[in-house]
Amino acid sequence: MGRQGLTFLTDFVQAITRRTRAGEAETLTALSRPALERATVACSVLMGRIGDASRVAVAEQALSAYGDLTPDEKLRFFHELRDAYGVDPDRIRAAYAAWDSQPDAAAVADLFQAVEPARQTLLRRLNLSPGATLQLVHMRQDLLAAMRQDPSLAPIDQDFAHLLASWFNRGFLRMRRIDWNTPAAILEKIMAYESVHRMEGWQDLKRRLSEADRRLFAFFHPATGDEPLIFVEVALTRGIPDAIGPILTAPESRDAAPADTAVFYSINNSLAGLKGVSFGNFLIKQVVAELSAELPQLNCFVTLSPVPGFARWLASQDDDRARTLSQALAGGDWKTDASKADRLRAEVLALAARYIVAEKGRGGLPADPVARFHLGNGASAHRLNWPADFAPSALKAAHGLMINYLYELDRIETRHEAFVRDGTVAHGPQLADALASQG
């Protein structure tokens, strides 16, 4: 940093920490500098030796300046984080040498501090500002977008992921049931964040909150206030549904027979900046416990889930069977011709069963992301349903295919352990029969 930069740094610190009338004038001068300069200087100040009160004020200014950045300036800001706030190789070598000569607890602690990038300290200090946690989640969302342009920013994301997993630990989360009496600000966010089955307005939301046969639960975090982190929508039904339409369009009825099945038909992670921070497994288990206590007659807990990777996977296969089916489904005439759909159904189920049970992605886990989620939670792939969803997005992603994942309370832990340990994909007789039909 040159002489001019050092002068601005001094002025900046004085401006945001003074409380005199003269200091107010200096504040206007220092804080009128370009946003990128203010953001980078504030981060530099935060890493220096200043008092706690000043540190809070500087963190607030840093995040305020970041909020004023253009997308190109955010990319330059992330480059600064990558290049200026990494690790010190000499410090790591010295700490390792000390541990190697005397591997005691103190040496381990020194080595641990040496290998931690300075970015993590910077992010912790930025988080001192009121409301900073949610701002940092949005910053990570920006980072994930920037990484598509510049993958070299990945080390910064590793630091974000590490800290956010700690800050959003399950012990800090609180579950709330969302109903029609929930504050309107939260209800508006629920409508905005619903991405699986979009809502068409307030009446649609009200139907999904019906006391008679619907429930909606969400996780919140004290640091993010009324921002729902994840929410699940539940339909109370008789039997396991095989299509989403009747759930989304069913009129409200208070005279229906008592439900015996809880159907998780929409699970939404609200904040893109929390990608990779797992909440869903805890939420589903807590919802099951809540519903079991409220409605003891429920004896079946099941999802009605999309299969978002099926169409892409089917189109990528090079065997004649898959290629023929992919072309037939892409043609689309089966959507209006029930007899053609009937002729295709056995083949759809056979190849879909192969995709869910046998197809592996990175790390040997199921290729389908929704399958990874539910199977990892201890569910089984119970039943494939086709055609089950005629929404344009579902037709594009899965040719209208949906699946029920079954949560059997006395088998969740066993299935979870088998999936984690051996990659075992628990599945029901329908999928087993479909797989056997392939020879």
Question: Mind explaining what this structure looks like?
Answer:
Strands 1, 2, 3, 4, 5, 6, 7 and 8 form an eight-stranded mixed β-sheet that branches. Strand 4, helix 14 (280-294) and strand 5 (300-303) form a beta-alpha-beta unit. The chain is built from 21 helices and eight strands. By secondary structure, it is of the alpha+beta class. The model is unreliable at 1-6 and 19-28 (pLDDT under 50). It is globular. 55% of the residues lie in helices and 10% in strands. Helix 1 crosses helix 3, helix 8 packs across helix 10 and helix 15 (310-316) crosses helix 16 (320-331).
Number of DSSP strand runs: 8
DSSP helix fraction: 55-70%
Average pLDDT, rounded to a whole number, is 91
Beta-strand proportion: 5-15%
Radius of gyration (CA) equals: 27 Å
> Tally the helices: what do you get?
21
Poorly predicted runs: 1-6, 19-28
- What's the order of the H and E elements? HHHHHHHHHHEHHEEHEHEEHHHHEHEHH
Which of globular, elongated, flat, extended, rod-shaped describes the shape? globular
Our measurement of the CA-to-CA distance between the termini, rounded to an integer number of angstroms, reads: 69 Å
Structural class: alpha+beta
Largest sheet: 8 strands, mixed
What oligomeric assembly is this protein in? single chain
Give a quick precis of the structure.
By secondary structure, the protein is α+β, with helices and mostly antiparallel strands. Helix content is 55%, strand content 10%. The protein has helices at 3-17, 21-30, 35-46, 52-67, 71-84, 89-101, 105-115, 118-126, 132-149, 154-167, 184-193, 202-208, 245-249, 280-294, 310-316, 320-331, 338-358, 369-376, 392-398, 412-422, 429-436, and strands at residues 174-177, 214-220, 230-237, 261-269, 300-303, 305-306, 380-385, 402-407.
